[in-house]
Amino acid sequence: MSQDTALIIIDMINKMDFDGGEDLLEHTKEITEPINKLKSEAKEKGMPVIYVNDNFGLWQDNVPELIEECKSGPGKPVIDEMIPDDEDYFVIKPKHSGFFGTQLSILLEQLGVKKLILTGVAGDICILFTANDAYMRDYDLWVPADCVASEKTDDNDNALKIIKRSLFANITETGETTADQAFNEQ
Fold first, then answer.
1. Which residue from 12, 11, 15, 120 is spatially nearest to 69, judged by alpha carbons?
2. Is the Cβ–Cβ distance between 127 and 143 less than 8 Å?
């Protein structure tokens, strides 16, 4: 993994207390291990790790407060496994895309990032919208299928097909490739 690559972890700090949240939580539990493995590899290579997360009505950008609020919901077991480290970046987003209304573009530019590994939830909403905006900004994309979850498996699979076909992203699972290979296979 090169240093022009960033790992983006989307909406894994999540209360999961909404209609459909129970299904999303079950699918999300399956992706925490591969995301954490990617995170460890990214840190070993000096790659930035950037959490991009919904604000849950907390507009003060107080990350510890947001995490504690989210832990009050059913998503606590996932949050406990996905807590950001002190050196990780944390971007609060107001809508589905990690780029809309955030400083993500500026941060990526300052870090010299050209390639993004997108992970998290929900594949058919926030991952899809963030991938689309990343594609429109000319980032190379790897969206590992085993690191993305949605409420419904069919919706997740359809989103990954769109991400692959329309955004030219690699969706190969983490166990089948490395980041360097994933970007060379595009």
1. 15
2. yes
